[in-house]
Description:
By secondary structure, this protein is α/β, with parallel strands linked by helices. It has six helices and five strands. It has a domain at 12-145: Nucleotidyltransferase, domain 5 (2-Layer Sandwich). The chain has helices at 51-64, 75-81, 83-96, 131-152, 160-163, 169-178; strands at residues 12-18, 27-33, 67-73, 104-108, 120-123. A five-stranded mixed beta sheet has the order 3-2-1-4-5, sandwiched between helices. It is globular. The termini are far apart. Keywords: Cytoplasm, Endonuclease, Hydrolase, Manganese, Metal-binding, Nuclease.
Amino acid sequence: MLTLKLNADLLECGTDEAGRGCLAGPVTAAAIILPDNFKNELLNDSKQLSESKRALLRPLLEDCALSYGVTHIFMEDIDKINILNASILAMQRSIEQLKPQPEHIVVDGNRFKPYKNTPYTCVIKGDGKFMNIAAASVLAKTYRDTFMEKIHEEFPMYNWKKNKGYPTKEHREAIRKYGITKYHRKSFRLLPEQLTLELE
């Protein structure tokens, strides 16, 4: 069973991101403040949930939340500032959208940067421990998936509807065959053989 939050007596938000390891599309983060009486049997780390369960949870979390925010950081910025900084920026911009602002932030993972003067705690595998982080992971994942499904219509040969931009064998094959799109992250190693230069 997940615990609601780390600090029972503080107005606390959970934050998490999705899409860090993808070859295409944005990195997406969410931040959410859940009410103290929030209960849900289904809620878990988004990676443990089926797509249909995440889809079911998203409107429910949005309805119940005291406040939530979601942010995409796109490919150009990921290539400029790197994926770790882009992930943290997405989380911070999501927290900025919260009204009221939290008194404490719990972050999934082990890296974060100070946000204003708000104390924060990084929790490894936090999305499997705290409901507020798990809720943020579900929002981040579903918003990102929706975006990937939309751009799939533009470039169906990469099958982003299914792989969501992750480095599947099929996705790499499509890059090999069709090259890259404006949605691909140019700073990422898109194909294993990118390391070898063809010297004529």
